[in-house]
Amino acid sequence: MTGHFLSANLIPIVNSLILGLSIASIWLIAALGLAIIYGTIGVINMAHGEFIMLGAYTSYALQSSVGLPFLLCIPASFVIVGLIGLLLERGLIRYLYKRPLDTLLATWGVSLVLTQVVRLVFGSDPKYIAVPEMFQSNVQIGFVNLSVLRIFIFALTIALVAATVFLFYRTRFGMQVRAVMQNKEMAASFGINADRVYMVTFAIGAGLAGLAGSLFGVLAIVLPTMGTAYVVQAFLVVVVGGGTIIGSVVASGLTGELQSIFAYATSDTFARFILYLLIVVFLRFRPAGLFAPAKARR
């Protein structure tokens, strides 16, 4: 009887912890592209939220006009938004790499332009991405009821992190990226084209944001301003993680679980307040984040 009572009391806590993992996976997907751009190039991309929004609208347009299945819309969003990011880097960002304040202001201006362009093309009314039937059911594991869509997003997050870590730590391109980060001039003396490394890295980061938007589009309504709701958490995850990929993984897990636990004990709004307050206090004593780069970028 006592064991049954304890089990019943643990059910909400376990559900809260699982919800925290779901929140963490969403935040991590939103932050992954930002962590790559900021951690590798050192650019604070204020248009990252709008890249997420473009990914959602890309999936909506492909699904509604072409009839492309949602599972194919996900990689398509990565490619299309990645190409948009590549054009932005070639046309604007590459001229501002040594001017961080100008880069911040420029990308903020780009975010305003992208929002208005989407509003003119698609209108301001909310759009909806159809959820595939296979994702509309739930899975019962013990006393825990899990959405198939949430399970898919969590599994895709793990796959994306693994692929990103492999790309940047186990491939020749990743070695070139790390060399440019440590010493751009020395890397150039070994024949590494830093300009090309920056271009590809920015395109990958933008593509990951577009992929994130494709996933977020099935979780909520699609609006021209939707990116703002995700970019704040993405920046917090990257800053707390120290601008590294591994740091962002740990930071998203901690912040997601903390928000879920605080929301269970209080309310969602108050939970966000407590979480943001804790992050401010943490950064006061450790401004470099959890996993700061070993050496400064040159």
From TrEMBL:
- A Pfam family matched in the record: BPD_transp_2
Q: Can the keyword Ribosomal protein be found in this entry's annotation? A: no
An example GO BP is: amino acid transport
- InterPro entries assigned: ABC_transp_permease, ABC_UrtB_bac, BCAA_transport_permease
Which spans are transmembrane here? 6-29, 36-60, 66-88, 142-169, 197-223, 229-254, 261-283
How is it placed in the membrane, per its record? Multi-pass membrane protein
Places the protein is found: Cell membrane
What is the official name of this protein in its record?
Answer: Urea ABC transporter permease subunit UrtB
Query: The organism's lineage?
Result: Bacteria, Pseudomonadati, Pseudomonadota, Alphaproteobacteria, Hyphomicrobiales
The gene designation is urtB
